[in-house]
Amino acid sequence: MIWSWTRFEDLGVHGLYEVLALRCRVFILEQGAYLDPDGVDPTCWHLCGRDEHGTLMAYLRAVDPGVKYAEASIGRVITAPEHRGTGLGRSLMHEGLARCGSTWPGQAVRISAQSRLRRFYESLGFDAVSDDYLEDNIPHLQMLRRPT
């Protein structure tokens, strides 16, 4: 997997198009309609995972501290549907957490996780810090990964 960690303005129009297309495939077509471009993307770091042919297979965005939460946050975590169950999601999160650790050393990371993925995120060091709530009609909970 070839990883790139870029700011919004460095994605380029083709990179941005690929990111939004993948996000639409999963977050809108699979999970139901909602406004994915939420105005936060321009302030984020974007982690893209591409195969040897340059095809986007995995993506997440890391939001600067103070934009959504006091802490840095990770969101829009996605792997292409055809690559689910391969461990790519875990690799994506490991890479994202490492990049967050380099960008914001010694700081916690907060996520709004789908409740069904609680165990997955717990295995990555996150602890639940809220009760379940609905976000875009899907049960979520806030989770926090404290600095180690």
What do these coordinates show?
The protein has 148 residues and is an alpha+beta fold. It has one domain: Gcn5-related N-acetyltransferase (GNAT) (Aminopeptidase, 3-Layer(aba) Sandwich), CATH 3.40.630. It contains 3 helices and 8 strands. It has helices spanning 12-30, 88-103, 118-122; strands at residues 2-7, 44-50, 56-63, 72-79, 109-114, 127-128, 133-135, 138-145. The radius of gyration is 14 Å and the shape is globular. The two termini are 26 Å apart. The model has no long low-confidence stretch (mean pLDDT 93).
Task: Give a short synopsis of this structure.
The protein is built from 3 helices and 8 strands; from the N terminus they run E-H-E-E-E-H-E-H-E-E-E.
Keywords:
alpha+beta, 8-stranded mixed β-sheet, single chain, Aminopeptidase
Compute the average pLDDT: 93
- What would you say the CATH architecture is? 3-Layer(aba) Sandwich
Content of β-strand: 25-35%
Give the helix/strand class: alpha+beta
What is the H level of CATH, i.e. the homologous superfamily? Answer: Gcn5-related N-acetyltransferase (GNAT)
Molecular shape? globular
Over the alpha carbons, how many angstroms does the gyration radius reach? 14 Å
